[in-house]
């Protein structure tokens, strides 16, 4: 078996909240619904620590489907996922700008 | 409409209670995620991109006003004020919280609804012709048998862990409006030479990554032998369907690999060994079910209503809507009326809670409190007096529900795609919206005539793209959304799988590409020839040339 593909850096950790289903991000102060607060791992050690947080939070029945997402910082320094799938996951449905994170956090 | 008996009621309530404790145990850690996931899926709870999604079964696409009002309430109270009607005649809520799902299931149980078997490797919600019971071209209403299959298959101990999911669609008409040839089993009510009513069964149809058209496994199954025959068929699939590879686990693969003759021989051999089904339905129960589907008491009406004819003459917009959105009813003076959930620029199949209430009220007033959901993601009021159509049209217009596009190019089937779905590889809804805008001019749509555009956001084909006259499949190509266009698909009794026209194109190019295909049709059509008829006559070549020309221009 080949080694699992390593997420390129910088990266953030996102997941779905177990009870609410909402997309949450790991921040310096624990999990948050606000993508702007996401802790950005610039180095491999931080990325590994983030992944460990994801596993621990899963085991504590807090989140599901936690994984690292590689990002680029926009002109305001905020993280934007490199893949379009996660861009929608972070923003919300593109046909409904009134729903999801895009409506709540600018 | 079917009404729960005490067993149905207790069964559904028990399931809600069980799910409530399953959620509690998941939160306490007593159930692991691996243990909980199949339990939530069997209750219709998926985890999508932004949130959980709850898929509610609408058995054979029939709803009462009371049920639709309850769905409106749930949408308002526990979701974001809207729901999405699907190609399997179900309703999906996109934003429920897991903590609220037991409450939602209780509210559903209050109106005899549930989410059981809307997911998982079991026999799913049985879908039906949306005009069942009212269509003039029908041998018999197929819904009693759909209800029988629902009861028989619900938690059937032998068929609860099949190799893969299993979808059944039924029709009682010669013209197939239920896409029965694109289902694991398609059932058609037929009459034999002796005048007896029975069932023609098709098996092995399906879409997804390996699209197949269903094949006839038995031309006539007598009524009283249906469950026995289904048991034999399901047993062959359950035992011999592949479990080593989920992409090869559907019955269509088994039928394809061993051939329909061999499959039929194995089913017949199993059938011969059975002395009736393991779980038989007695004739009394069948009669009880059937009685619920008796047609409402229609008034004796003339076939032509002068006031209705006059309203059409006086109001061309109304006449256009009547032409595309009404369907001949078996009772004189009545019509079955389709409410398009495809207003220009909106997500296909979405309805707000407010719109659901409007439809529920109108159904109560004008359609014996009955509503149907179509696999085209529209709604139907099945029993409308022609004299009431004008008032209905005006009321629907006020709710943004009077789009006159049923069966036309903007009546697009679309899955939720990457705007919601965790499995999607590309977006679907914005493609539908861009096409609706491109072809918004109704007189042009009417000139183009019947044309089914169907869009899926991934290879799983929930948007039925394989059987669209024009199919659009969203994929990922080098980190971008890319759309593959197919032509010549058909979901009716002339079922066909569309053929790929060329390399994938980006979203911005899709409307122009479709425009080019329509252009070929308009240039070559003969009098009265529809798009799909012209495609069949002309073949792929001229369309392919136009498509590739465009791709070359864009490059």
Structural notes for this entry:
The complex is a heterodimer of chains A (about 110) and B (about 550). Chain A is an alpha+beta fold. Chain A has one domain. Chain A contains 3 helices and 5 strands. Chain A is globular, with a radius of gyration of 13 Å. The relative contact order of chain A is 0.20. With about 550 residues, chain B is α+β, with helices and mostly antiparallel strands. The longest helix of chain B is centred in the N-terminal third of the chain and has 23 residues, at about 5-30. Chain B starts with 5 loop residues before the first helix and ends with a helix. Chain B folds into 4 domains: about 5-110, Sulfite Reductase Hemoprotein, domain 2 (Alpha-Beta Complex); about 135-290, 2-Layer Sandwich (Sulfite Reductase Hemoprotein, domain 1); about 305-400, Sulfite Reductase Hemoprotein, domain 2, CATH 3.90.480.20; about 415-555, Sulfite Reductase Hemoprotein, domain 1 (2-Layer Sandwich). Chains A and B meet through helix 2 of A and helix 1 and helix 14 of B.
Task: Give average pLDDT of chain B, whole number.
Answer: 96
Strand content of chain A: 25-35%
Compressed to H and E, one letter per element, the order of chain A equals EEEHEEHH
The overall strand count of chain B is 20
Reported for the largest beta sheet of chain B, the result is: 5 strands, antiparallel
Mean pLDDT of chain A: 94
- General form of chain A: globular
CATH architecture of the largest domain in chain B: 2-Layer Sandwich
Question: What is the CATH superfamily label of the largest domain in chain B?
Answer: Sulfite Reductase Hemoprotein, domain 1
What's the story with the biggest beta sheet of chain A? Answer: 5 strands, antiparallel
Taking all Cα atoms into account, the compactness measure Rg of chain A is 13 Å
Q: Any idea of the CATH class of the largest domain in chain B?
A: Alpha Beta
Name the helicity range of chain B. Answer: 25-40%
Distance between the termini of chain A: 42 Å
Low-confidence stretches of chain B: none
- Beta-strand residue percentage of chain B: 15-25%
Count of structural domains of chain A: 1
């Amino acid at each position: 078996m080949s080694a699992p593909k390593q997420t390129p850096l910088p990266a953030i950790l996102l997941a779905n909240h177990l009870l609410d289903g909402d997309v949450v991000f790991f921040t310096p102060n624990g999990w948050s619904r606000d993508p702007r607060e996401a802790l950005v791992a610039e180095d491999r050690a931080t990325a590994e620590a983030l992944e460990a947080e994801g596993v621990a939070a899963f085991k504590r029945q807090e989140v599901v489907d936690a994984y690292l997402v590689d990002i680029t910082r926009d002109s305001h320094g905020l993280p934007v996922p490199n893949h379009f799938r996660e861009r929608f996951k972070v923003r919300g449905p593109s046909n409904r700008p009134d729903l999801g994170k895009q409506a709540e956090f600018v | 409409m079917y009404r729960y008996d005490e067993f149905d009621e207790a069964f559904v309530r028990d399931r809600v209670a069980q799910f409530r404790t399953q959620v509690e145990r998941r939160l306490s850690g007593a159930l692991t995620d691996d243990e909980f996931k199949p339990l939530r899926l069997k209750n219709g709870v998926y985890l999508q991109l932004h949130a959980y999604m709850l898929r509610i079964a609408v058995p054979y696409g029939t709803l009462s006003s009371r049920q639709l009002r309850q769905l409106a309430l749930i949408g308002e109270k526990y979701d974001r004020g809207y729901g999405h009607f699907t190609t399997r005649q179900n309703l999906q809520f996109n934003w429920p919280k897991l903590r609220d799902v037991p409450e939602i299931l209780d509210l559903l149980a209050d109106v005899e609804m549930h989410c059981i078997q809307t997911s998982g490797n079991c026999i799913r919600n049985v879908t039906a012709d949306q005009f069942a019971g009212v269509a003039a071209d029908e041998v018999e209403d197929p819904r009693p048998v759909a209800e029988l299959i629902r009861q028989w298959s619900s938690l059937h101990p032998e068929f609860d862990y099949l190799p893969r999911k299993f979808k059944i669609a039924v029709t009682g008409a010669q013209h197939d409006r239920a896409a029965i040839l694109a289902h694991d089993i398609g059932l058609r009510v037929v009459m034999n030479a002796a005048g007896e009513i029975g069932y023609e069964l098709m098996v092995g149809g399906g879409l997804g990554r390996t699209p197949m058209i269903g094949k006839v496994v038995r031309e006539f199954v007598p009524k009283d032998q249906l469950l026995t025959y289904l048991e034999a068929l399901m047993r062959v699939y359950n035992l011999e369907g592949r479990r080593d590879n989920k992409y090869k686990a559907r019955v269509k693969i088994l039928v394809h690999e061993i051939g329909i003759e061999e499959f039929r021989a194995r089913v017949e051999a199993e059938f011969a060994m059975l002395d009736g089904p393991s779980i038989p339905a007695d004739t009394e129960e069948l009669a009880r079910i059937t009685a619920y589907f008796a047609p409402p008491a229609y008034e004796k009406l003339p076939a032509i209503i002068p006031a209705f004819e006059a309203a059409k003459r006086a109001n061309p917009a109304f006449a256009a809507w009547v032409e595309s959105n009404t369907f001949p009813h078996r009772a004189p003076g009545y019509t079955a009326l389709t409410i398009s959930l495809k207003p220009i620029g909106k997500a296909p199949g979405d309805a707000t809670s407010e719109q659901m209430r409007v439809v529920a009220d109108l159904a109560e007033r004008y359609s014996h409190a009955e509503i149907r959901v179509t696999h085209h993601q529209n709604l139907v009021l099945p029993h409308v007096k022609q004299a009431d159509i004008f008032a209905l049209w005006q009321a629907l217009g006020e709710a943004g529900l009077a789009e006159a596009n049923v069966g036309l190019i903007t009546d697009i089937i679309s899955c939720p795609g990457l705007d919601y779905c965790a499995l999607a590889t590309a977006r679907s809804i914005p493609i539908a919206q861009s096409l609706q805008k491109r072809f918004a001019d109704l007189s042009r749509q009417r000139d183009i005539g019947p044309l089914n555009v169907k869009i899926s956001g991934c290879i799983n084909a929930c948007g039925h793209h394989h059987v669209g006259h024009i199919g659009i499949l969203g994929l990922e190509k080098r980190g971008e959304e890319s759309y593959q266009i197919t032509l010549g698909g058909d979901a009716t009794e002339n079922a066909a799988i569309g053929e790929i026209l060329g390399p994938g194109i980006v979203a911005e190019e899709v409307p122009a590409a479709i425009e080019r295909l329509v252009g070929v049709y308009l240039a070559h059509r003969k009098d009265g020839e529809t798009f799909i008829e012209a495609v069949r006559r002309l073949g792929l070549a001229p369309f392919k040339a136009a498509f590739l020309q465009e791709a070359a221009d864009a490059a």
